[in-house]
Amino acid sequence: MSEKILIVDDESSERLALATLLRGQGYEVRDVGDGASGLAECATFRPDLILLDIVMPGMSGFEVCRRIKATPETRLTPVVLITGLSATEDRIEGINAGADDLLGKPIDFNELLARSRSLLRLKQFTDELENAEGVLFSLAYSIEARDPYTRGHCERLAEMSAHLAEKLGLSEEHIKALRRAGIVHDIGKVVVPDAILLKPGPLTEEETAVMRKHPVVGERICAPLRTFRLVLPIIRHHHEKHDGSGYPDGLRGGEIPLTAAILQLADVYDALTTNRPYRMASSQDIALRIMEEEAARGWWDRNLFDAFREMIRNGNAASPPEKLGKAASGL
To answer: Got the DSSP string for 32-101?
Structure first.
């Protein structure tokens, strides 16, 4: 399947020349004459590269580029701004708009082809990373689906964790890591047999040992993805406790990554407030009271728990569905 390039330029002769050149190189090409049409074509054509003129009537290339980069479906699509402008401030505006490259007019076709090939290789690499993430997310959802009591658990953890991280002023990359970790935190349960995962009661010592392997297995599964470098500590340590009684490494206090401690609180609260096979869901007040008692025993960081409790009471958390599984059992 040939790579797809979209040309957005109000000069029909420029469009025709570029399109002819690129089709001759084996690319699938579409061309439009204004910014609004370019945005519409992005949504339907899904190009791998966009060649975008800056000076056009109506919506400028700067604005089109900003909108492309602000849209989740197209934000990673490379954009080359083509301009006859030479002023430094115009080039700076192009960079600020999110452009991946800039080319001056008149266009040198050899330079255009070289830069296009480079950006298309980068786009292919980005797509491969996204596909790898997609496989991991699909695996995580399939594990969740094994237990009818865990429906929606991953999304709620991702939402609650991200809200608390925002409240605490964590960086955008750590908030993003928490959203990812909310989905894949239990991916290591792929090695846990259904007889253990779905057991409607307390686990034996041997079964507990099997279940407690899942954070390490999950970290190992996700480790090859460099984009998950901030996710891995959350996966491994989201069952650690402030007093050192958690697993797999028995970390204490500040040894526990803050992001992992955040996910742990969301994990426990979500399980307490949803049904399990052997007990009904607790109300918000009862769940927080239970967690308060656990904090008094030293399980949770007191300041972090206070922030979490305030967030829940202010209504900044995902709403639980009718059912959930065993996430608060300490496993």
So the answer is: ESSHHHHHHHHHHH--SEEEEES--SSS-HHHHHHHHHHSTTTTTS-EEEEES---HHHHHHHHHTT-SE
- Is pTM beyond 0.70? Reply is no
Q: Are residues 96 and 189 in the same domain?
A: no
What does the alpha-carbon distance between residue 229 and residue 231 come to, in Å, rounded to a whole number? 5
Same domain assignment for residues 178 and 296: yes
pLDDT tens-digit readout, 284-305: 999 999 999 999 999 999 999 9
Domain membership flag for residue 140: no
Considering the domain boundaries, does residue 137 fall inside one?
no
Q: Are residues 123 and 154 in the same domain?
A: no
Angstrom distance (rounded) from CA 307 to CA 171: 17
Cα-to-chain-centroid distance, residue 80: 26
Q: How many CA atoms lie within 13 A of 154 on its CB side?
A: 20
In sequence order, the β-bridge partners of residue 275 are: 323
- Token duo for residue 54: 């800056």
Structural domain span for residue 110: 4-127
> 327 falls in which pLDDT band (50, 70, 90)?
very low
The pair of three-digit structure tokens given for residue 21, joined into one six-digit string: 């050149």
